[in-house]
Amino acid sequence: MKISFKIIYVSLLLIICHTTFSQTKEGFSIKGKVKGIKDTTVFLAHYFGYNQQVIKDTAKVDAQGSFHFKGDKTLPEGLYLVSLPKNKYLDLIIGNQEFSFETDTANLIGKMKVMGSKENEIFFKFQQDMSVKFDEMRALELERKMNNSLLTTGKIKKLQADITQFQKDWLKSTSGTFVNTLIKASQDPEIPPFGKPLVTKADTTAFYQYQFQYYKEHYWDNIDLTDDRLIRTPFLQKKLERYFDELTVQASDSINKESDFVLSKAKGRDVRRYVIYKIASTYESPKVLGTDGAFVHMAEKYYVGEPTLWDTSTVRKMKERVAVLKPLLVGKTFPDMYLTDTLGKEITIPTLVADYTVLFIYDPECGHCRESAPKLAKIYQGLKPKNVKVIAASIDRTPAKWKKFIQEFKLQELIHGIDIHKNPQTGKEEYYTDFKNSFDVYATPVVYVLDRDKKIIAKRLPVEQLEDFIDFHRKQITKSKEKGKEGK
Predict the structure, then answer these.
(1) Helices (H), 104-191
(2) What is the pTM of this model?
(3) Which of 75, 148, 235, 392 is deepest in the core (most CB within 10 A)?
(4) Which pLDDT tens digit goes with each residue over 237-268?
(5) CATH number for the segment(s) 339-480
């Protein structure tokens, strides 16, 4: 069984919303007036990461552009957006549950006036001030393109310094506000000067290493992982994705270490659930081969290990998923698969002598399997002289379908297996292989690649990548051996 993280995502969302709503029943009342729209519908939604929004209310706009969001349940705090016609929108901070605002579609930020919400007053004043400064910067950049003078370059450097100082002063003066938390969360750490001139190649290498190390060590300085409101912003998801995609070595041990580090900071209950969910869902079906060990780590330690964070159904499903995946991780010895060949003889995978063994697990009537079969027949001609053996295992136990598939796609040179075994005492057919739960076959085809010792070195590879992968792996083994000789 493959975990549906879509279901877990919905459950997580419902839990978070329920937790917030159960705190109070005071409700909310947000009045808006936007010049330039009329006789339409607008939506109020909060962010859930940068690519999801959760609609909390809708409102009708009258002929004067006025509308009213209201409800008898308090909105969970965070960054919201008001979706307007023609793909326009504006962000609002929801903390205070009763306020109003007015603006104009000609300049939503510049014309914004907020009444009754100090957080939003600060938020829009910051955006307005920054907009003025960026307009100045654009004008100077255009001026530099026209004349490229030292005077203009000097003005640009001065303005850049002014912007930096303005932001630092603003962060100090707004300490304690959620808008301060938001802006800090969107910023990268400032890297101090290296401290020595870059004279040699070694200096340059050390400089880049220093920058990377400092950036990574201080990556989370500006984001407060104890603040549950951050899950209702775009910034936490972006931070997580960049940290794991760009700053973490894509190997299970490294991912596990970094996951534990981030979660040591994630003290907010909802933030913790969100971070666990994001990391686990990324590595159940990972982009990088062999990193699904990170999913097993997350499932065991943070789902099964912290059951009070989740509903019992989620914990149970995670236990079941770990039971399937753990024996199938890269580096594990391939479990016993009980098959007989076309003559009814038992196939014993551990005794096959080959540098590499490929398991192609398929259903004779599966469309993707039928697309892959001719590719496999062609690729095998290149694999055969490289001491690679291919076992094609049918999950369908109908001999006629099985043999027809072999004949149709001219796969006779492969080793063919089916899970049909005759009991020598009764003469009846018996089945021993649970493809779904023992080999994670929830869709076909599934490909495993085993080394000489029958340890898993790859899985779920597209058939067309088999030869390239095996060639690459062989080269890596050769390099490793050569390095070992040099070290002696």
Answers:
(1) 118-147, 150-173, 178-185
(2) 0.85
(3) 392
(4) 999 999 999 999 999 999 999 999 999 999 98
(5) 3.40.30.10
